[in-house]
Amino acid sequence: MKTLFFMMLIVGLGHVHGQHTRVHTYPARGFWTTEISPAARDTTLVRFYNENHDLVYEEAVAKLLNIKRRSVKKRLTATLAKLLNEQKEIEALRQKKQLIAVVLGK
């Protein structure tokens, strides 16, 4: 009887432990991150990534960004969308071998 009780306890704990695992999901259209430099405490490093986790753009902003504010999040997300749209246009032109023609206006 004790053996059965301990087996049920172990199985039950294993089941509960398995439910607490965290799965990381990433947005389908890319994401942005911010980082405050330890050397320069008044500078925020903003990085934008595409859906393949490739760095698209990086900029050091000479002030602290409060990413808890909705307006800051909206502006960073809008910037990300603009960067990703431009990146897709450039990739399409590169595949058609028309990038230089578009840049030169011909």
Question: What does it look like?
Answer:
The chain is of the alpha+beta class. The chain is built from 3 helices and 3 strands, in the order αβββαα. Strands 1-2-3 form a 3-stranded antiparallel beta sheet, with helices on one face. Strand 1 (31-36) and strand 2 form a beta hairpin. 4% of the residues are buried. The model is unreliable at 16-20 (pLDDT under 50).
> Could you name the ranges where pLDDT drops below 50 across 5 or more consecutive residues?
16-20
Q: Level of helix content?
A: 40-55%
Number of contiguous helices: 3
The strand line-up of the biggest sheet is: 1-2-3
Number of strands: 3
- Please state the average pLDDT score: 75
- Largest sheet report: 3 strands, antiparallel
By helix and strand content, what is the structural category?
alpha+beta
- What general form does the structure show? flat
Distance between the termini: 86 Å
Radius of gyration: 24 Å
Strand content: 15-25%
Question: SSE order in H/E notation?
Answer: HEEEHH
